[in-house]
Amino acid sequence: MIDVANAPTVTRPQIRIEGAVKSFAGRVVVDIDELVLGDSPIEGLIGPNGAGKTTLMRMIMHSAKLDRGKVTLRRGPEEDVEEVVLSDLPTHRMAGLGVVKSNQVIMDFEKLTIWDSLLLSLAAAKYEHPHRIFSEAPLFEAHAEEAREYLDFFSFADPTGFAQSAGEKKLLDIVRCLLLKPRFLLLDEPTAGLPDELTEKVMEAIRRLASEGTSVVIVEHDLNVIWSISDEVHFMAEGNIILRGPPQTIRENRTVVEKYLGEGHV
Ligand SMILES: Nc1ncnc2c1ncn2[C@@H]1O[C@H](COP(=O)(O)OP(=O)(O)OP(=O)(O)O)[C@@H](O)[C@H]1O
Ligand SMILES: [Mg+2]
């Protein structure tokens, strides 16, 4: 039996962003003084096109190098918190630390079958030289059943074939993320272009993951998804988080309405 009184309190992983600036061609697109993600299980990140949402996620993954500033992952039980400076590490180390991001622009899955692309992404997360996977069948065997379950859950017709539609590619990217067993998951428009029933399934998978202790940050323009799934929402505009709060508060906020929602969307 679990000794509840003496069980270590496992805190949800958090990501702290401090003094983080990113510019492209001399133009500052993200400039965040201080931001903590992961206080709540599922946090929405919304804002107009070009606000810097994708760039912020890429800065966390260190696939966009910071001009200055620091991104830190805090994880572990309260009495023994471990801090890792993500902005000192290369992108390929992130998955090993449990930090995983889905892609807004879907990857080119056209040259690999559904199975092979999942196999390759598992290997890429594990090895610095992912081509080694072709002699590492046991790695995939260890994940095959789970992969099959996810593909079934998202109603993939034939995993030995190629992802066909934009929707299938999007879902395949989400399955890839789920198989990596993220502790901190960043989702960039995961339901864009999906039919309603698949959007529901993606939301179900996200909720389940969060209930098991994963911190989730989700960017979405479909605000029905944001309002219904988020415990807290961050509003980003012009490279900065200008508001955070419960969905209902953000939804009714005058600045959010003016800068993003437009009258009549509330
Ligand atoms: N690799 C890049 N090179 C040059 N400019 C870039 C690059 N990536 C992003 N930008 C610019 O940075 C700004 C922020 O872009 P970003 O993609 O982060 O916005 P976003 O909030 O994700 O927008 P959307 O909701 O349209 O996805 C935009 O003006 C964009 O054109
Ligand atoms: Mg974006």
Structure description:
The chain is globular and about 50 Å long. With 266 residues, it is α/β, with parallel strands linked by helices. The chain contains eight helices and ten strands. The strands form two sheets. A six-stranded mixed β-sheet has the order 6-7-8-3-9-10, with helices on both faces. The protein has a four-stranded antiparallel β-sheet with strand order 2-1-4-5. The chain starts with 9 loop residues before the first strand and ends in a 5-residue tail after the last helix. The protein has a domain at 42-52 and 91-261: P-loop containing nucleotide triphosphate hydrolases (Rossmann fold). The structure holds adenosine-5'-triphosphate (ATP) and magnesium ion.
